[in-house]
Design brief:
Blueprint: H1 4-17, H2 21-91, H3 94-110, H4 130-133
Amino acid sequence: MLRPAAESGSRRLARRLTPPPGDEVKEVEETIEDLLRRLDEFCGMTDQIRNDTSQILDETIPLVKDKAFVKMVARHVSSLEEQVLEAEKTHGTFLNSVCRLFQCATISSLKNRHHPPAARSYDLPKLYRTEDFFPMNCVGTKYQNH
């Protein structure tokens, strides 16, 4: 333990060696204020990024998905329409088909030996499945009411 006289001497020495607090304290306070201001700006930017991300996830992505779905369906409808047009060219129009059907029925009733030509097989194109996009077990989705 230090004696009281030695203690006061060491304090006096420390005071003499320590510079006056005015300039250094002000510089440290200014640095702290600058860091606090930058931290506040950083927090503001992260909040803005978080809000923008939420908006993108909640609004923009579903719109993009909807547009992509509509484009996919439009491509499939166009493809099927082309196939129907090709089938009509190959097999005639619906009216011609009906007329042929009645003629074949009339002819076959008159002449039992004439058989209608065998229908060509048709392979369905691979299309989207509505259930994949609008599952039946989804409760409370925005598509349920549509």
